[in-house]
Amino acid sequence: MLHFSRLKTTAILVTIAIGMLFAVPNVLSPGMLDHLPSWLASSRVTLGLDLQGGSHILLEVDGPALRKERTEQLRDEVRRVLRDQKIGYSNLALRDTSVTLRLRDPNDTQKAVTELRKLAAPVTNALFGNSSGEMDLTVSSGSDGTVTLQLTDAGLTAKMRSAVDQSIEIIRRRIDQLGTVEPNIQRQGLDRILVQVPGLQDPQRLKNLLGQTAKLSFRMVDQSMSPQQALEGRAPPESEVLKGQDGQPYLVEKQVRVSGEDLVDAQPGFDQNSREPIVSFRFNNNGAKRFAAVSQESVGRPFAIVLDNQVISAPVIREPILGGAGQISGAFTVQQANDLAILLRAGALPAPLKVVEERTVGPSLGADSIQAGKTAAYVAGGLVTVFMLAVYGLFGFFALIALAVHIILMFSLQSVLGATLTLPGIAGVVLTIGMAVDSNVVIFERMRDEAREGRSAISAIDKGFVNALGTILDANITSLATAVILFLMGGSGPVRGFAVTYILGLLTTMFTAYTLTRLMIAYWVKWRRPAKLPI
User: Fold this and answer.
1) Please, are residues 414 and 421 in contact by the beta-carbon 8 Å criterion?
2) Do 306 and 217 form a contact (C-beta atoms < 8 A)?
3) pLDDT range class, residue 128, cuts 50, 70, 90
4) 205-227 tens-digit pLDDT
5) CB atoms near residue 187 (< 10 Å)
6) Which residue has the higher pLDDT, 83 or 126?
7) How high is the mean pLDDT of the chain?
8) Furthest-apart CA atoms within the chain: distance in Å
9) Per-residue pLDDT reduced to its tens digit, 305-320
10) Would you say 231 and 206 are in contact if contact means Cβ atoms under 8 Å apart?
11) 8-state DSSP, 89
12) Any bridge partners for residue 150, and if so which?
């Protein structure tokens, strides 16, 4: 156990050197990092919201809006099916989460029910991904030719769950394009999403960015009457009045000519003539074809660009737009143009999000937490140092060197993995300081036991490492299993932050406390050939 080949010794020292290389950026200032060569490691440990401050927002998916949209989609699907099957109907109406209609010919009831039941889909089990046996829709009929399509609770719950999952991904894409680091985005309950963005001190901008559904559509402006006449009387059934950004009303057709789903890119820029901020967009092949067809047949007519039921602009089509690209202008500021481009690139949310809770954590609070964590680490390190030197002497000094390397390697791993250090994470660091020397205490006590049984110093040292290995592995593996469960099952960021730090600490402990300490003691034995155990 005390023999180390040259290759093994080199591998241990190279591992420590690489760890130090990745840990160094954490103690350098940003200015010094900028002057480092590009081939050197420059990643640093990311501080969590509780350490560097930032924005905390709790969002809730708008359930009524989601149910309304799903019911309206069902109504449109019913129209399509009955039209394709040439089945006459009347009195098509929405009632909460159901769609009702009356067939003109009651003899068509069985055929209509059969075709409409094809719209139902099995509800997928969220945990295992298989069908739960329930359907998201039921279809029933009456003797007088009435047909009712009812959305089931299981189907609506699955729709809500899917909307939250989709919203989380869209929120992540939007925040990532802000340039912030390591946002914490996670589900809370069935319909809520927690968003924490460290380092962002402008919660209003974050709310504006996340609160917009960002459903973009391109529709024709209805010129059959003025918006004022539509507001005073009755608007055409296929049109509706929408407000513009400036408060001016527009009479816009309900039919969506081109959807924002066909966008592939959106970038902020400036108009070449007016130098005003604009947003340039580009469609995919399907959107480009539809956009070209609409612009060819609508030359001279105003074309409304609608975002979340608000008209951004309504330019007149002067000539066919065949390239699949265009621009949106609307007296934007530079930040508004940039945020709109982010929204369009990230995609539309499946349902509106409501802000349930918001707060801003100031950097001063984080600085106090960091200072408190440093103080705890210094005190813990000082007490461990005094104890190890007083009880184990020279071997205690070797253990302290291994402890220092353990801390360096732990922070280097956090830097490489991009892990976020939170206040509970600092607690994990302090905890692993004691854990790191615990293995050495086990080894040294085994050495003492072997020496008491009459073994020579070198034999006692060798047997101490051999006999302590099983105990060390058992203790660290069980602790590692607990930490992994904490990471997998701990839903909140602080719990996961502690688990990550604890896992990394256990891994580096098993390397430094056993391998590195054994290497130092082996070379000391080879140099001194001791006749007496120095502890």
Assistant:
1) yes
2) yes
3) very low
4) 777 778 777 788 889 999 888 88
5) 15
6) 83
7) 83
8) 107
9) 888 888 888 888 878 8
10) no
11) E
12) 98, 138
Cβ atoms 186, 56 nearer than 8 A:
no
Running DSSP on this structure, what letter comes out for residue 42? -
Structure-derived torsion over alpha carbons of residues 482, 488, 493, 494, reported in degrees to the nearest 10: -10
Structure tokens at 14: 């190279």
C-alpha to C-alpha distances, 375 to 298, 370, 409, nearest whole angstrom: 71, 9, 21
SS (H, E, C) 406-450: HHHHHHHHHHHHCCEECHHHHHHHHHHHHHHHHHHHHHHHHHHHH
Q: Tokens 């080199």 label which residue?
A: 10
* pTM for the whole structure: 0.61
Helix, strand and coil in the chain, % to nearest 5: 55, 20, 25
Structure confidence by residue, pLDDT tens digits, 228-251: 888 887 778 888 899 887 788 999
**Residue partners of 160: CB distance under 8 A and separation at least 6:** 61, 63, 66, 190, 191
Q: Count other Cβ atoms within 10 Å, centred on residue 298.
A: 16
Is-contact 526 19, C-beta < 8 A?
no
- Token pair for residue 370? 């960091």
Which of these, 359, 367, 497, lies nearest to 45 by C-alpha position?
A: 497
Contact by Cβ (8 Å): 315, 221: no
Task: Please give the helix or strand (H or E) that residue 148 lies within, else none.
Answer: strand 146-151
Residue 51's SS3 state is helix
List of E strands, 481-524 = none
Does residue 502 have a pLDDT over 80? yes
* CB 214, CB 349: distance < 8 Å: yes
How is residue 479 written in tokens? Answer: 């602790």
Closest CA to 79 of 63, 65, 91: 91
